[in-house]
Amino acid sequence: MLAVPAPEPFDSPDKLFEVKWDGIRAIATVEGGRVRIHTRGMKDISEAFHDVGAALLETVRSDRVVLDGELIALDDAGVPRLHRVMERWHQGKLSRKPVPVSFEVFDILYRDGELLMGEPLHRRKAHLNSTVEQNALIHVCHYEEGEGVALFQTAHELGLEGIVAKDRASVYQPGKRSRHWLKIKHSSSANLVIGGYTFGGGARKELFGSLLLGAYDGTKLHYVGSVGGGFSKRDLEITYSALTQLHRSNSPFASEPKVDRFLFWCDPLLAIQVKYGEFTEKRNLRFPIFSALRPDIDPRDCTLAAISDS
Fold first, then answer.
1. Are 102 and 68 in contact (CB under 8 A)?
2. Residues 172-194: tens digit of each pLDDT
3. CB within 8 A of 260, min separation 6: which ones?
4. How confident is the model at residue 277 (pLDDT cuts 50, 70, 90)?
5. In 155-308, at which residue ranges do the beta strands (DSSP E only) sit?
6. Which of 42, 223, 226, 310 is the 20 to 30 A CA-CA neighbour of 55?
7. pTM of this prediction?
8. Which domains does the chain have, with CATH numbers?
9. Is 233 annotated as catalytic?
C-alpha cells in the first residue's frame, strides 16, 4: 500500500501520524523458523539483511507473520539516509564493516493463519504491538493521534524526510496508492531511469560527469535532465560499475537529448532517486541532486505522472 502526496501538514482526529523514513520499504515474512525479506518490487533481499532476519526471529511472538516496514540506516548525525541503506545492500553478507541497519515496522498484514488486511488500521496497530517485542534492530514505529503539525515540525527540526498521515479506519490495500495514506515531505524527490552518462573530468575522468535521466509516459522514455552532483566516492563506483554492463549503441529516449559531451547510451534498467528544486512545464528537472541508487524500484514505475505528483 502506497501513500499519495499532500501539500502541507495538518491535524485531524481521524488520522494516525508517523515519521516518513528515508529507507527501503520492505515486507518481512516469518514462518517455520525462517525469515524472507522482499522489496516492494518483490526482490528477495533476505541475505543482504540477514541480521535483520535473525533479529525478527528473536522478537516476533507468532510463527506465521507478515510485517510491513522500512529498512533504515543512519548517517553520522543520526539521521536516516537512503544512500546508507543502499550502501549496505551492495556490501554483501561477508563485509567486515557492514552498515548498521534497523527495521522500522509500521503494519502487520497476517498472523497465525489470519489475514489482517481487512481490519482497520488502529486494530492492526494493536495486533502489531502484541506480536512484535522490540529489540536493538526491530522497532515498532511510534505514531501520534491527531497531531500532524507538531510531528511534522519535529521531523523537520531533526532533519527527517517528513511524515505520513493514515486514516485510523483504513484497511490495507496492497499494491495501491491510496488517499487513505498521505505523505507530507520537506523537499521534492523522484525516482528516475538512467538512459546514459557523460564522461567526467579531473579526478572523476575515469568514471562519469553526469547521468542522463528519463521517466516513462506509457511505453516512451522521456528525457527530463541530467544529474552530476550529490555522489559519494562509493556511489560513483557502484553506479559506474553497473552502467558499464548496460551499454547500447542508440539512445533509449523517445527524443534524443542534445548533449555536447561524449557519452554512452545505456539500457534503461537502473533506477535512481534524486531530490530537485522544480519540475518545469516543459518536463525538465531543475537543480537535481543524486540521492541514492534504487535497485528495489522497477524502472517502468518511474513515470512522468509520479514526478508531477511528488
1. no
2. 999 898 999 999 988 788 999 99
3. none
4. confident
5. 162-167, 177-185, 188-198, 210-217, 220-227, 247-248, 263-266, 271-276, 278-279, 285-286, 289-293
6. 42
7. 0.77
8. 2-185 (3.30.470.30), 188-309 (2.40.50.140)
9. no
